[in-house]
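Try this one yourself first.
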């Protein structure tokens, strides 16, 4: 057998293993439930990709925490919050918020609801398993399973919540009520944050909202099972978010890391806090003023880790239908601050985003 034939045979084996995993419709949790002590090779990441995995342990950096108490009623507190948010988005692209208005009991119930979904009877859960991204409710493991060079140790419940709420009966019964209630609160919080960001940029408070940045909300309930060989894989690969803004709820297990000043920095869980990060489209709109930065989730021997990521985005499940163009906001441009990016449609941007692989910015190909 020559080298070409060997490589084709190896690729065919890889494709078969990937398909066999997907065909179980049980995700990564199915592997753990089956008692695996060695992770399948489709989950093993190259060592150069993992070697700096824990360099952040002695980092002097920590992402900003911002108190939103009084931002809607007190002008002084609002001005302080705007300044801190603007600074965090320019320097970090990430920050945590406290006193955001969503009760801690709802945060805890949302995490519990996601856990209930992933840990319910396998036959019930399998009914939601699909790779048809046009569906408003779906369960799957690794959105890019058949495109990415390696898989990650994570399963996901995905719901499209806005602009049109899904029919309640289409949602999983084990988390239906809390998913509807939580998404409504997150969308309201998102509108407030876009107002604060607009003012921080020197724009009308409704500017980003009027651009429909808060129009579409996708909900991803992630489940990261305990991993028998966490040093060989990742929970989520290195990436930036292809949206305007993400609001993340994470449990107390931790594992999220942000790339800042050439090192990985842990984002430690704060009870009752939410994490906010800038997405690629907001960096594009603000002409590099606000930063969309790389982040990842490490795999752990302890688990499961539960998180809920709410994405304010263009159109996630049907990118081909969104032909609106996005480019730097005109009001932010001047002779001293010319456009850094050419305009793009959401469709073209998302096609590039999902084809390029993780680890490099999808905005680079739009640079003028």
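Now uncover the answer:
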């Amino acid at each position: 057998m020559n080298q070409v034939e060997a490589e084709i045979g190896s690729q065919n084996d890889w494709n078969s293993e990937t398909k066999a995993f997907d065909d179980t419709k049980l995700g990564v949790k199915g592997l753990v439930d089956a008692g695996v002590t060695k992770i399948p090779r489709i989950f093993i990441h190259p060592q150069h990709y993992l070697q700096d995995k824990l360099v952040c342990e002695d980092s002097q950096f920590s992402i900003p925490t911002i108190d939103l108490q009084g931002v809607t009623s007190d002008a002084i507190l609002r001005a302080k919050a705007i300044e801190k948010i603007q600074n965090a988005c320019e320097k970090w692209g990430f920050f945590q918020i406290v006193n955001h208005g969503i009760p801690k009991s709802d945060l805890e119930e949302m995490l519990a609801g996601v856990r209930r979904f992933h840990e319910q009877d396998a036959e019930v859960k399998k009914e939601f398993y699909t790779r048809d991204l046009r569906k408003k409710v779906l369960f799957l493991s690794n959105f890019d399973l058949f495109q990415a060079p390696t898989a990650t140790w994570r399963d996901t419940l995905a719901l499209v919540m806005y602009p049109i709420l899904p029919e309640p009966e289409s949602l999983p019964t084990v988390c239906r009520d809390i998913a509807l209630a939580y998404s409504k609160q997150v969308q309201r919080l998102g509108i407030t944050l876009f107002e604060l960001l607009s003012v921080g940029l020197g724009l009308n408070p409704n500017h980003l909202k009027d651009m429909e940045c808060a129009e579409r909300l996708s909900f991803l309930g992630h489940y990261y099972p305990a991993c028998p060989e966490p040093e060989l894989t990742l929970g989520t690969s290195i990436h930036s978010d292809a949206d305007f803004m993400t609001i993340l709820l994470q449990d107390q297990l931790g594992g999220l890391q942000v790339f800042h000043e050439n090192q990985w920095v842990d984002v430690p869980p704060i009870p009752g806090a939410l994490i906010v990060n800038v997405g690629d489209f907001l960096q594009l709109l603000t002409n590099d003023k606000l930063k969309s930065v790389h982040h990842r989730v490490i795999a752990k021997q302890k688990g499961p880790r539960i998180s809920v990521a709410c994405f304010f985005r263009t159109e996630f499940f049907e990118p081909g239908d969104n032909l609106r163009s996005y480019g730097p906001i005109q009001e932010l441009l001047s002779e001293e601050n010319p456009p850094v990016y050419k305009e793009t449609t959401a469709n073209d941007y998302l096609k590039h985003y999902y084809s390029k692989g993780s680890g490099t910015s999808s905005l680079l190909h739009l640079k003028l």
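Discussion: Residues 1-9 have pLDDT under 50 and may be disordered. The chain has ten helices and 14 strands.
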